[in-house]
Amino acid sequence: MDRADVALLEALQADSSLSVAQLAELAGVSASACHRRIKALEAAGIITSYAAQVDSGRLGLKLQAFVEITLTSQSREAMDRFEAAVGDFDDILECHLMSGQADYLLRVAATDLEQYDRIHRDCLARLPGVSAMRSAFAIRRIKRWQGYPVPRG
Question: How many angstroms separate the CA atoms of 124 and 78, rounded?
Fold first, then answer.
């Protein structure tokens, strides 16, 4: 990955709506070379998708919860059942298999505590194999995720 690829990845992570011409100018390459490089980064699996960043607060989702999940068993079958069930619930925004005390960390967004209670009862409590759940609520976002740092070779 050279300087132009790094520039493209940084620019696309900051604003994926930029035109090829704008990206080419930022990367210091021609538009056709820029297009080829982007296609190569996609083919290599480095760029996996394009998406808009949405302000959750403006959607009314003012409550962000992080939920630690501990399973009754760490068998492959138990973990497979849990992970498959997580995919069935749109209210679960992210799920990470963790090291440490909890087996999984989930991220959930809700309008308020009342909606979180509904999500907890109708979604989280229905996940298979859960022995313990611990919820923590974000008070205020300090830094928004802006993309991955791109290694400079």
Answer: 16
